[in-house]
Amino acid sequence: MLEHYLPIFMMILGGVLFGIVMVKLNEWLGPRRPTEEKLTTYESGMEPVRTARERFSVKFYMVAVLFILFDIEVVFMYPWAVAFRELGIIGFVSMTVFILILLIGLFYVWRKGALEWD
Amino acid sequence: METLVADIWRSTPLVLLTLVGLIALLVEGSGKGRAAAVYWISLVGTIASFVLSFLSLNTEEAAFNDMILQGGYAAFFGMIFTASAFGTLILSRSYLRRLHTERGEFYVLIVFAAIGMMLMASAIDLIILFLGIEVMSICLYVLVGFLRTKLTANESALKYFLLGAFTTGFLLYGIALIYGTVGSTSFRAISAAFPAVSNQPLFLLGAAMLVIAFSFKVAAVPFHMWAPDVYEGAPTPITAFMSTGTKAAAFAAFVGVFLGAFQIAGSKLSEVIALAAAASMIIGNVVAISQSNLKRMLAYSSIAHAGYMLSGISAANREGETGILFYLATYTLMNLGAFGVLSWVEQKDDTKLTFDDYAGFSAQQPFLAALLSIFLFSLAGIPPFAGFFGKYYVFLAAVKADLTWLAIIGVLTSVVSVYYYLRLVMMMYFQPGGATVEEPPAQMAFIAVTCAAILVVLFGIYPSLIVDLTKEFLNI
Q: Residues of B with CB below 8 A from A108's CB?
């Protein structure tokens, strides 16, 4: 019985080893020529100012959470739009219900003032 | 189109509660000071869903492409969840008003959590089961930390969220491994493939992951560490909700997967669950003795009760299934009632929650003391209260499944539990002191808790009232 678990053990071992080996290989084989420019924080091409480790407003979290919510909504719409003909009327009704539920959420968020910055 | 309408028609308890939740959210969003309206809408919604669940008890039909099974089992649990949500709503109202933090979202989240629970009980596909667990859990994470200016509430919400999210990982990995061996997530397909795959390592690994995830949700040893801290920090009505509705939902899923999709009788999985049950009963009951905070005491007691019910799952027979259903229905009533009385005595600053704070309670509030005593006697499993028959059924099931040692541990630890339940009764009746409630409980909450006490006595004398309901869909 126990020897049947060997493949699982091998898989776990393999997974761990793979992670370590790849990181270490990079370290050993890759050339390292650090310059001052290279070592600075990557800020999409901007010159970094001040430290990034400071407290920032909770409002950013609100925006991020809302963005994820309504972003996922759109993610669902793409496959639905592609398969629209095959899904037929049931697909249309289901999607309408889905969007209506999200609209209620949007209404709530809007009326609670979560969309306003101040 | 006809099938869609028919599916929606079949799942009216679930659909109606969802609609009510959405309407309540619209009302809450439409202006300030709508909390009372949201409360009443939610209350009416849970009652309506309860009635619809009751009416659909005798029809069991699959809906939505064999994703959910409505009526019967799901309807029975639907009644437990809506009753639990109803009680929680009533208790929350007076609790929040006393703290001056009443907000409509609180009630809406309770309704949405109940929807997630109903989805868990009606799922016959692992994906829907997962969806239900997430809907319920996310609402609970917010509810636990609702009093966000309180440090303990933040601590418990964060603990619950982190551990809960981690458990979700176990659950998903388990589902993935089972899908990998069976090739389907539907209970029916898993059940058909079970004899062939039940000894495959990958399948057993997947099943073990599910045991971990469900044990966490029902708060069984060794995945119980979160329960005392979370129960202590959460608002008391939510503690009541978590120890009744959430526990029932987790057991609905546990039974659905391990007795419905798997046939675990006499297998290794059954032994694993039996060990978890024994550990829960021993650790829950023994550690509860040393607690001075009543919410923590009831948290450990709820771990012990999870152990009793797990022995019904590990027995894996009809008696066990009936026993768990009966146990959950009555446990919901007695725990809601006990937490209800606690929430009235509790002060705004989280004091008056220890044993000593109940000295002389019977002299000041004889009726409330009597109610609390009924709930405590029932939790201890003393006849003629309903708690006795719950234990009787699950231990009987364990004996019939040749797990006599488990039943013996259960009976012995029940004796231990009598000590800490009756310690509170003794405090109320035999110690001098002036314990009383901060302000008299709201009329509706008072009536609801009184009704719960009456039902606890009634189901203790006529357990067949509930057992007969379960006969139809368990095919006895």
A: 25-26, 28-29
